[in-house]
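Researcher: We're reviewing a set of sequences before deciding which ones to prioritize for further study. For each one, I'd like a predicted 3D structure that I can look through quickly. This is VCBS repeat-containing protein. If possible, include the structure in token form so it fits the rest of the review sheet.
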Amino acid sequence: MLRFKKRKLSDDKYEACAVFDVNGDGVPDIVSGAWWYEGPDYVRKHRIGDVAAIDGYHDDFSDYPLDVDGDGRPDIITGAWWGETLRWRRNPGPDGGDWETIDIDRCGSIETIRFLDIDGCGVPEIFPNTPGAPQAFYKLVRDESGRGTGQFRKVVIGTEPSGHGLGFADIDGDGRIDVVLSGGWLEQPEDPFQTPWPFRREFALGLASVPILGYDVNGDGLTDLIVGQAHDYGLRWYEQRRDGNGERTWIRHDIDLSASQFHDLRLVDLDLDGRPELVTGKRYRAHNDGDPGAHDPIGLYYYKISDGGEFSKNVIDFGPAGEASGAGIYFWVQDLTGNGYPDIVAPGKDGLYVFENLGTGDGNE
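Model: Here's the predicted structure for VCBS repeat-containing protein, in token form for your review sheet.
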């Protein structure tokens, strides 16, 4: 079993974070909300700028690094529910000061954002989960030398509201990554800019996690789905089956029904055994106190996945808010210490935590 060293960086209640080299010194830093924390010790704290506080939330549900303006410095892609606007924050570089915030598009309320290089250009496209609007992605416009220009091209691939939930998976095995929504999946055509994408209404995942994960859980060669309930109890996987005519059906399997508000999930090889673990936890006060299980203890977990599709739960942290940490709406997994093991940065209304992965303790570190 893995061992983790827990450290609280801040009591600030931002629910998103990222890890990247903010100041160009070659050392990863941590970004969360209005601040960035300078590596390698993350003690020195630098201001990014004001982030609106609205009704118990902050208007910042993503902190993703992308060099938008082509100056060689990573900027931040963000957006949230209340502002209804996809935005980027310009990295000011060595001069410091507040990061200018620039609107990309008023696209509607954003649950959170995920990123995928859908066209193989080497730069990820931006996919906001906008439950009330059709699914779209935003492509960074680059100049002749490949540098970002600060402009984006919007491509609307859906025709009806997306619903709560978003993920990426090659559902049909054609080698192209499809977009999974709570009520079905959008099949990527040969040209991803050919719109709209065909919609396959094959399941109903409820108020699903972001992301919904695509993974062959049982090793049968078909892509299955791993889904958390973002505003209720339940973590499940949906087994893809096909009959002799190639028709798909989906069989639901429970992973963990003991906790609620599994809003963000990751598949990552935490123990370096060559197989990914499922990492997730509770988003503390996801709808403030309005969700089932809102007043339960919070926790952060990883699940080992067996060859037969069984999930075994391992607790990283668990307890009352203020003592334990959840996973926020946008947590990050990356090796911060250089020991090879991925660490976990967990934001949320319970504060900002780092869980240093110490390995298995069996002499393999």
